[in-house]
């Protein structure tokens, strides 16, 4: 059995039931296969085995009181996966589906993503099975305070710096940071995605979506193509989807879909800047459903369908796809239908939105396929820039941060291409991203000895 297969078999045995983590581990580790023969030192130091086990997993209870006075108890998680190249860094997810397998997959992916940015950040992820949907602001605040009441002792500007993810946006970061400040009494860079008034960076809200479009633009450039005039499907309607659509519009593309957990809207005339402003108000302030867009702008709404279902069932034609919602939203049948309907470039705003079978189809059909750890790294990259600005106690302009973001996305794209070529899989961004992200972390781990 190869070293990699041996590690995967052990994970399967020890972590059975953590399906999303096992999926991510399989994707990453199998694509590291070509590194094994070139790095006997990694094998000897058991780097492949050690990198797949978190440094520590913190599980805690989060008791809080709802508006009716009833006590509620949620599960809290922070998985500090690997800090070989910098403080632990990665978002917090509040969603009822959250469990240890999901947080582990996200934390594992974060190691390689953060390494790709070239900034000094280790990998971590956290969250809770708390569902902010339908809760009052007061309930969300009390939950965030209860969550921070435990989390504060595990984080710090040089230890671990969480941020947002699904269900954790500007409102939640404000409540979390406000409570940290209250109990620790230190204005420290312990969270990113902060408001501009209290240490946040310009462009952080936009960064993941913008970065995913910049990455697509780089991929298209390898075929002498550009974003302008392309039709694009975007899933989700949260932070990543919103700013993906904004950048697509700015670059002259036509985004035509958005979705949420109730269904998908298709606006074949194109989502414009004015319509997007409506979505931002709907989702970020009124906290309504995307079906309201369909009623307001008189376009079709497909209940309980994703954009990928609609492409499959209605033969909707698109050139580009930006899955920006959640893991495993694109399955093999979707991938087949997307290719059949003209999609030739997929840039993942979400983490692991494509199943392994579907990834194989994209690769077989020569689709420009940018895996999340490369394509959506712009968010954590600008989080890294927020930490730098906090450390220097100054703020950079919008233009400066956006320039740096564009430079980082270009660089990630180049590193993926170079690593894919060096390890015999030219043009395969999955292999390229995994190997390029892995090598830096592995070399740091090797330098430290057995710790
Ligand atoms: N916010 C960030 O900076 C980054 C986010 N990501 C990833 O991007 C994706 C979206 O995150 P955000 O936009 O930040 O979250 P968000 O909470 O702002 O929006 C999430 C969107 O996905 C939809 N969604 C979530 N779970 C769903 C499900 N099970 N079924 C159908 N729809 C579902 C929600 O309705 C919402 O429209 C996630 O995979 C996240 O891990 C990746 C990198 C950075
Ligand atoms: O900005 C960050 O620290 C983390 C963003 C994130 O959670 C992700 O890249 O998936």
From TrEMBL:
* Keyword presence, Nucleotide-binding: yes
Q: Name one GO molecular function term.
A: nucleotide binding
List residues binding substrate: 89, 110, 113, 164, 383
Binding sites annotated in the UniProt record for NAD(+) = 208, 239
Reply yes or no: does the keyword Oxidoreductase apply: yes
Q: Where's the Glutamate/phenylalanine/leucine/valine/L-tryptophan dehydrogenase C-terminal domain?
A: 201-449
How would you summarize the oligomeric state and partners of this protein?
A: Homohexamer.
- Protein family membership: Belongs to the Glu/Leu/Phe/Val dehydrogenases family.
Give the protein's recorded name. Answer: Glutamate dehydrogenase
């Amino acid at each position: 059995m190869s070293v990699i297969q041996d590690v995967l078999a052990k994970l399967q045995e020890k972590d059975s039931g953590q399906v999303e983590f096992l999926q991510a581990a399989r994707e990453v580790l199998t694509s590291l296969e070509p590194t094994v023969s070139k790095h006997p030192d990694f094998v000897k130091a058991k780097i492949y085995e050690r990198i797949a086990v978190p440094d520590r997993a913190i599980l805690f209870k989060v008791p809080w009181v709802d508006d009716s006075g009833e006590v509620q108890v949620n599960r809290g998680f922070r998985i500090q996966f690997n800090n070989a190249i910098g403080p632990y860094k990665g978002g917090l997810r509040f969603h009822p589906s959250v469990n240890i397998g999901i947080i582990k997959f996200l934390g594992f992916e974060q190691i390689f993503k953060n390494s790709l940015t070239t900034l000094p950040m280790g990998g971590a992820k956290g969250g809770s099975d708390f569902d902010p949907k339908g809760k009052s602001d007061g309930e969300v605040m009390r939950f965030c305070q209860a969550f921070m009441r435990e989390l504060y002792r595990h984080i710090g500007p040089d230890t671990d710096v969480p941020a947002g993810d699904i269900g954790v946006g500007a409102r939640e970061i404000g409540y979390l940071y406000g409570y940290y400040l209250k109990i620790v009494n230190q204005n420290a860079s312990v969270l990113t995605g902060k408001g501009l008034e209290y240490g946040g960076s310009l462009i952080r809200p936009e960064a993941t979506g913008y970065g995913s479009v910049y990455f697509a633009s780089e991929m298209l450039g390898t075929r002498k193509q550009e974003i302008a005039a392309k039709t694009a499907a975007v899933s989700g309607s949260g932070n990543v989807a919103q700013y993906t659509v904004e950048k697509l519009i700015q670059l002259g593309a036509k985004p035509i879909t958005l979705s949420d957990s109730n269904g998908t809207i298709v606006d074949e005339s194109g989502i414009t800047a004015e319509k997007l402003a409506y979505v931002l108000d709907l989702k970020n302030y009124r906290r309504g459903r995307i079906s309201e867009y369909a009623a307001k702008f008189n376009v079709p709404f497909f209940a309980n369908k994703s954009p990928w279902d609609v492409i499959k069932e209605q033969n909707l034609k698109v050139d580009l796809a930006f899955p920006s919602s959640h893991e495993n939203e694109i399955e093999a049948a979707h991938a087949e239908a997307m290719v059949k309907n003209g999609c030739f470039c997929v840039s993942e705003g979400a983490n692991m939105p494509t199943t392994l079978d579907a990834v194989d189809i994209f690769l077989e059909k020569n689709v420009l396929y940018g895996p999340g750890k490369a394509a959506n790294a712009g968010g954590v990259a600008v989080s890294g820039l927020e930490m730098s600005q906090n450390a220097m106690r100054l703020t950079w302009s919008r233009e400066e941060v956006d320039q740096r973001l564009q430079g980082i996305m270009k660089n990630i794209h180049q590193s993926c291409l170079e690593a894919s070529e060096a390890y015999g899989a030219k043009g395969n961004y999955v292999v390229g991203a995994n190997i390029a992200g892995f090598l830096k972390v592995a070399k740091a781990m090797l330098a430290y000895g057995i710790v």
